[in-house]
């Protein structure tokens, strides 16, 4: 006879969860996001996901001007029912209030980066970029694993302020050299040494 394991899943409120719930509910799994009032739990990540985040965070921190900071995997409060967690984000330095803070307001985010995983593909291609653009985040990058050698490919987008949609500005393999939101030069092939 096998014993059944009891799961105690949170029961959503009538109108869905809020950002306040996301930030205060005890025992949520790490990296839980809030999308349209629903809690989204993420699967364990591949090694690729982890090292690409490290590669980008390190590269961005090397070149970020003093008025900006680079963070990884922090909630961004878009509105009452949306608190996604970009894999990497660049924020205004003034928005870093303490080392204990757990979120940033969307108005302080300059760049949001999503590293695509199999379980997040639809969210990273459609849902999250749409929400980031509608909320006014000026820059968005989407990173995917591609080619026979599983290298990172970075698709770069810039916000069209009139339409509140992202326009593609380039696809980068091997090296990521940009002048916005600041001068950036990241050797994407460093992933092979990580």
Structural descriptors:
194 residues; alpha+beta; two-stranded antiparallel sheet; 20% helix; globular
Task: Describe the protein's topology.
Elements: H1 19-24, E1 33-35, E2 38-40, H2 47-63, E3 68-72, E4 75-77, E5 88-92, E6 103-105, E7 109-115, H3 121-135, E8 139-146, E9 151-160, E10 165-173, E11 175-178, E12 184-187
Parallel strand pairs: 4-6, 7-8
Antiparallel strand pairs: 1-2, 3-5, 5-7, 8-9, 9-10, 11-12
> What form results from the Cα inertia axes?
globular
Q: What structural class is derived from the secondary structure elements?
A: alpha+beta
Tell me about the largest β-sheet: 6 strands, mixed
Measured on Cα atoms, how large is the radius of gyration?
A: 17 Å
Number of strands: 12
- What share of the residues lie within helices? 10-25%
Secondary-structure element sequence?
HEEHEEEEEHEEEEE
Mean pLDDT: 94
Please indicate the percent range of residues in DSSP E strands (runs of 2 or more).
25-35%
Side-by-side strand order of the widest sheet: 3-5-7-8-9-10
Helical run tally: 3
| Low-pLDDT sequence parts | none
Alpha-carbon distance between the two ends: 46 Å
Descriptive account of the structure:
There is one protein chain. This protein is 20% helix and 33% strand. By secondary structure, it is an alpha+beta fold. The longest helix has 17 residues, at 47-63. The radius of gyration is 17 Å and the shape is globular.
